[in-house]
Amino acid sequence: MGSFTEWIGYWRSRIIYDFKPFNLRKMVKFYSRLIKPGELCFDIGSHTGNRTSAFLKIGARVVAMEPNPKFIELLNRKFSANPNFKLLTNAIGSSIGTAKFMISSRHPTISTLSAEWKEVMLGYDSNVKWEKEQMVDVTTLDELIKTYGTPSFCKIDVEGFEGEALSGLSMPLKSLSFEFFPTTQQRTVECIKRLAAIGKYHYNWVLTESFKFVSTKWLTEEQILNELENYHGRKCGDVYAVLQNTENPDD
Fold it and tell me: Which of 49, 50, 82, 219 could be cross-linked to 224 through a Cys-Cys bond (beta carbons 3.0 to 4.6 Å apart)?
């Protein structure tokens, strides 16, 4: 069943991501601009599976990835009966291999493969802890594509390991998102530069779980970098990228 601390963390995540009134409806409306029924999506860092819920509701096929045992169990309970759902229990990175996964029981949303990001978070909040470590298998986005096909949308939420995840991608995707943190702006810049090296994208961004684009229009690489550089808030969010030869989602 796990320790009391693990259950505190588990239910904190469930409350944040799964139990907000009308959240699923908001997500379905938001992601329907990027995903169509029958298309393939990757949910990298699925956690409680709230994005997977929305993707499946839209009618997409979902390959989800989550290495945290507590949430693997949850994801299987929620989605294993759905034929459009596939769960992988390894992690994503720049190359195939193994890596140390550091788990925060009380704050599972900050469990990470990135030792560098862990140190950044400790500087931000010295009270956070990573009580457990386990070795996990690591694959790449390129390998996922070889096995399951090219996704129309790929969500990446891997707590400071976004750069490594994108380093394992060598082809442009129709659309994707990755998490950003105001505490690690240089890593966000590197992620955008990596995307720009493999495809011509326009960009937008969302703060926290608002499911509302900050910008009223889609932005060039230079414009999104400028907006993020001038953002001095403390909230994290997601950067969205859409190939320029595809139709822009509505704002």
Answer: 219
**Helix (H/G/I), strand (E/B), else coil: 180:** strand
Query: Which SS3 state, helix, strand or coil, does residue 214 take?
Result: coil
Token pair in block for residue 101: 């996964």
Nearest of 10, 229, 215 to residue 241 by alpha carbon: 215
Q: Which two tokens stand for residue 106?
A: 């009380």
DSSP helix/strand/coil, 126: coil
Q: Which stretches in the chain have pLDDT values below 50?
A: 1, 251
Domains and CATH numbers, the chain: 4-243 (3.40.50.150)
Distance in angstroms (rounded) separating the CA atoms of residues 235 and 171: 30
Element (DSSP H or E) covering residue 244: none
Q: What is the DSSP letter of 145?
A: H
- Please check whether residue 20 is in contact with residue 48, taking contact to mean a CB–CB distance below 8 angstroms: no
Q: Read off the amino acid at residue 111.
A: S
pTM: 0.94
